[in-house]
Write a structure and sequence with these properties.
Blueprint (H helix, E strand, L loop, with lengths): L1 E6 L4 H13 L3 E4 L11 H12 L5 E6 L3 H7 L7 E3 L3 H11 L3 E5 L5 H13 L6 H12 L2
Parallel strand pairs: 1-2, 1-3, 3-5, 4-5
Helix pairs in contact: 1-5, 2-3, 4-5
The structure holds D-ribose.
Length: about 140
């Protein structure tokens, strides 16, 4: 799978672990930044990564900031993006099954590395269930201007 990944300084360290995991799992990724722990503004990396997913240049996106909240707010303003902020494995599974989320957000200052890795493995490995959930997602798309 081709994945767009990005973080701010608050998610930089966790992003290194997640990129190593993606390599281990055989996924291709592009790191949209940031590239150091210097303080920066998360919208500057969250929007380009989310927009690349919306253009279908990447199948999925993974965004990390301190809480995961800022990057998820950005991503969900991009048409075609359904971003899920996850702090547990069950949410990661259900958001793929029910919401067909194409972007995952996590908080580098909120969850531990092993939890984050388990979330990513589950989120990447779970299929959308379709059916009644298609109708609900269509209602979200209909609302996008
Ligand atoms: C940066 O200090 C912090 O505000 C950011 O990483 C994120 O948590 C925002 O939602």
């Amino acid at each position: 799978m081709k994945i767009a990944i990005a973080s701010d300084h608050g998610g930089f360290e966790l992003k290194q672990h997640i990129m190593a995991l993606l390599t281990e799992l055989g996924h291709e990724y592009t790191d949209f930044g940031c590239y150091s722990t210097d303080s920066m503004d998360y919208p500057d990396v969250a929007f380009p990564a989310a927009e690349a997913v919306a253009r279908n240049e990447y199948e999925r996106g993974i965004l990390i900031c301190g809480t995961g909240i800022g990057v998820s707010i950005c991503a969900n303003k991009v048409r075609g993006v359904r971003c899920a902020l996850c702090g547990d494995v069950l949410s990661a599974e259900l958001t793929r099954q029910h919401n067909d989320s194409n972007v995952l957000a996590m908080g580098g200052r909120i969850i531990g590395v092993e939890t984050a890795k388990a979330i990513v493995r589950t989120w990447l490995g779970t299929e959308f269930l379709g059916g009644r959930h298609e109708r609900r997602i269509a209602k979200i798309s209909d609302h996008e201007l």
